[in-house]
Amino acid sequence: MSVSARIRSHAAASLHSDLQRALDEYDAFKRARTLSQSFKREPLQWLGATEAQRMMVTLQAELDSNKGSETHRRACFSLICFLVKKLRALPLSILVIQNVERIGQNPVAGGGFADVWRGTMNGKAVCLKVLRLVTEQDEGARATVRKRFCREALVWRQLKHPHILPLLGVNMELFLPSFCLISPWMENKDIITYLRKNPDHDLYRALIDIAAGMCYLHSRDPPIVHGDIRGANILVTNDGRCCLADFGLALVTSESVTQVWSITSSGTTKEMYMHLAVQWLKL
């Protein structure tokens, strides 16, 4: 074995060891918290910013590989959620896309905490969802919005299904100091707009598409509840297929939950009660 090969082998073994150490430590932390026991300190303090980024990339690679048991994948997802929340950052080397350009000088739409721009990537139209940080003066509110945005990107990144709008990646430079989530541009827009222009569209097919997307979310391990199913968040592809979009309120849960937190238009948090799928309600 060559010197370079031995170095790579040693680095891989070291990274695997660190990954297992992090998974074990975070699992112990969760168990202690569940049992209302005190934990001497916050877990993973031995991870610096650079090491944490490397750890997130490794965890995402584990999730993308579809290898290992469901228990292992669940532990990896739980840990990467914790790191994203702690750092308010994402595994950049996997998610970042550079070759994207925006079109025009103004957004085409806006929501509570983000603006929507049209852009291009490799000659194809894309949607750029831009975190609205510049106009928010309150530092605490900015931190909350950024945390929610990172969480949306992380949850969205794990989803791959014909009736889920895919996340293509993230760009950190186009809208400095903010960043944007990149997804395919839907010329047909949302289902409400589409039905106005196409009143003869098969409604039964649309409902089947939406149900298939929701069923996929609920079948994840851990399950995911969208939290904001409505016409504006159901987009229509060029071939008339419905896709669920906007995972800003998505709730990753391991049990029945009827209470989540959302961001108001001013950036502050408020308590909301969502109408969840029947299978998540304890009667």
UniProtKB/TrEMBL annotation:
<feature type="domain" description="Protein kinase">
    <location>
        <begin position="102"/>
        <end position="283"/>
    </location>
</feature>
<dbReference type="GO" id="GO:0005524">
    <property type="term" value="F:ATP binding"/>
</dbReference>
<dbReference type="GO" id="GO:0004674">
    <property type="term" value="F:protein serine/threonine kinase activity"/>
</dbReference>
<dbReference type="InterPro" id="IPR001245">
    <property type="entry name" value="Ser-Thr/Tyr_kinase_cat_dom"/>
</dbReference>
<dbReference type="Pfam" id="PF07714">
    <property type="entry name" value="PK_Tyr_Ser-Thr"/>
</dbReference>
<dbReference type="InterPro" id="IPR008266">
    <property type="entry name" value="Tyr_kinase_AS"/>
</dbReference>
<dbReference type="InterPro" id="IPR051681">
    <property type="entry name" value="Ser/Thr_Kinases-Pseudokinases"/>
</dbReference>
<protein>
    <recommendedName>
        <fullName>Protein kinase domain-containing protein</fullName>
    </recommendedName>
</protein>
<dbReference type="InterPro" id="IPR011009">
    <property type="entry name" value="Kinase-like_dom_sf"/>
</dbReference>
<dbReference type="InterPro" id="IPR000719">
    <property type="entry name" value="Prot_kinase_dom"/>
</dbReference>
